[in-house]
Specification:
By secondary structure, the protein is α/β, with parallel strands linked by helices. The chain has 9 helices and 10 strands. Strands 7-6-5-9-8-10 form a 6-stranded parallel β-sheet. The chain has a 4-stranded mixed β-sheet with strand order 1-4-2-3.
Length: about 240
């Protein structure tokens, strides 16, 4: 049995200000919840429309109706389970390895995909502007497919966060940058990915020490740019391949 007050609290977590106030976030679906339950994140409760085994105490499980789960869900297509977890504490950034810096990424799907890519390529830290979409946005959590628990995401003043890295190289993706496939790149530093519409801001561009580009091929070359998550996958893959 779920109460009206519980439903009200869970629905409030659709909004950033209440996630911040309560330090809680929503995860939905068996795959995502199962991944997060196995992580260091602290589970508060799971609500299911059927008996499911997540390996947690029964005191943390509640059976609910489809109607109640629909009221709580932040997704357009509701799953059969929803969980509430405590937000993780930001950890200190380790600048000894590759770091991804996000300059005002606004699309939840893009952020979620980039987090998953960082997890895949063994990148433990992402630094973001305060204007970048909230990592605990339900759509971001869903897109990470559990990787949110394995990557440290830090928000703040991005120029300061970049300068905190000291003398590490700062790579930025630009249309007029040097061909990434021909550039001698090292396996540490900061890789900046820019806003979906405007790219890397002028303030951050001034901190970039190495401009790189993904070259276009074919005869027409009419595509203006790549989606930021697509570009991140190519760039991260090349960094890891080059230094394998």
């Amino acid at each position: 049995m779920v109460t009206k007050n519980q439903i009200k609290l869970i629905k409030s977590l659709h909004q950033k200000k209440y996630r911040k106030e309560h330090q809680l976030f929503i995860a939905e679906g068996v795959k995502v919840i199962s991944e997060l339950v196995k992580s260091s994140l602290v589970l508060q409760h799971i609500y299911c429309t059927e008996e499911l085994d997540f390996g947690v105490p029964t005191s943390q499980l509640t059976l609910v109706s489809n109607d109640d789960l629909n009221k709580m869900s932040a997704l357009s297509t509701t799953s059969n389970c929803l969980a509430i977890f405590k937000c993780a504490n930001e950890q200190q950034v380790d600048y000894s390895d590759l770091i991804v810096a996000l300059d005002d990424i606004r699309d939840p799907g893009n952020l979620g995909t980039i987090i998953r890519l960082c997890d895949w390529f063994g990148i433990k830290n992402i630094i973001c502007t305060n204007e970048t979409v909230d990592v605990y946005n339900p759509k971001v959590v869903q897109a990470t497919m559990g990787s949110i628990s394995r990557v440290n995401i830090v928000y703040g003043d991005l120029p300061t966060l970049i300068l905190d890295g000291g003398e590490v190289p700062v790579y930025g993706t630009f249309m007029d940058g040097e061909n990434i496939y021909q550039k001698n790149i090292v396996n540490h530093g900061i890789i900046v990915m820019g806003n979906e519409a405007n790219g890397i801001s002028k303030e951050i561009e001034e901190l970039v020490t190495e401009k790189i580009a993904i070259p276009r091929y074919g005869n027409l070359q009419q595509t203006e740019s790549l989606n930021v998550a697509m570009a991140a996958s190519i760039v991260l893959s090349e960094f890891r391949r080059h230094n394998f």
